[in-house]
Amino acid sequence: METKKKVALLFGGQSSEHEVSCVSGATVARNIDREKYNLLLIGITKEGRWLHVESVDQIASGEWRQSRKGAALLPDAALKSVLLSDEGRFSLERVDVLFPVLHGLYGEDGCPQGIAELAQIPYVGCDVLSSAATMDKATTKAVLERCGIPQARYAAFRREELDDMDGVVRRIESALSYPVFVKPSNAGSSCGVSKAGSRAQLVEALELAAAQDCKVIAEETIVGRELECALLGGWDAEASGVGEILAGAEFYDYDAKYRSSASRTVVDAPLPAGKREEIRAMAKKIFRAMDCRGLSRADFFLEKGTERVVFNEINTIPGFTAISMYPKLWEAAGVPLPALVEKLIEGAAVTRRRR
Predict the structure, then answer these.
(1) Residue ranges for the binding site?
(2) Domains of the chain (ranges plus CATH)?
(3) Catalytic residue among 189, 194, 240, 296, which?
(4) Is 47 marked active-site?
């Protein structure tokens, strides 16, 4: 009989997207084929404690956070193991695949991927370089600007530059017109994002974004439809159809994404002739340019009036909640969630040098 692979699934994390990651992690865990894989659940608290979680039900209830059983992914390549602890007793659990379902900082930015590479454990998703580069919006924009990808005009700043707030505001006002969006360069789920329509609002937005990250970007407002495309695979990644976000708020912020019943998603958005293929082709180009692998979701605007496709952002660990577009797009393309999860596990690689 063939030995089952041991999959270690990470969820939770220290980012502002902790709660969403727990929901995503539970969804993925419930859709892993237990006939083919043994599952090791590891929850990371907001304080950074790594805990061994015994059941998926404990994720949904939040009971896992009270666990006294520890877990630590070891960087030792000879062991390829997780160290489990329980009231002073220790054991090693060998791992075949690491599946990080960690949105945002300390999860989507290359941190756990780096530990997996040191341990030489295959892991699901993008490697250290592409994870770190795509997590940083300013870096992503700089790379894609060189590739000719249409995107919103922007200005990027370090937190230290905000000591001269008047100077930063003048630079933004000279480059962009109100209203402008202000974002932390490293954050997800629209956390810390504000729309500023005046100088006073701009100052407030810059301070809010800088409280979440050491880099801040100000971006011109693109008025149009919000569209998304899912990617799956390696260099020749497949692109899904194109979905649309119908936000239940002025823009698709955290509350609109996860708390508003008015927000809706459409998995087969009606589009002008040729735009669907243009978006799918651009998504693949972005995936390659950022050296991604495994999975990503590329987000775009279809600008009102011009019908210009404008890149917004790319997420390398997209959500797997009940309302998340990534699994919905693949289900619409004929890949149900259990099959999607299996494809991701079987596509796990060790390092970018061993693809």
Answers:
(1) 137, 181-183, 189-190, 219-226, 299, 312-313, 315
(2) 5-123 (3.40.50.20), 133-150+223-354 (3.30.470.20), 154-220 (3.30.1490.20)
(3) 189
(4) no
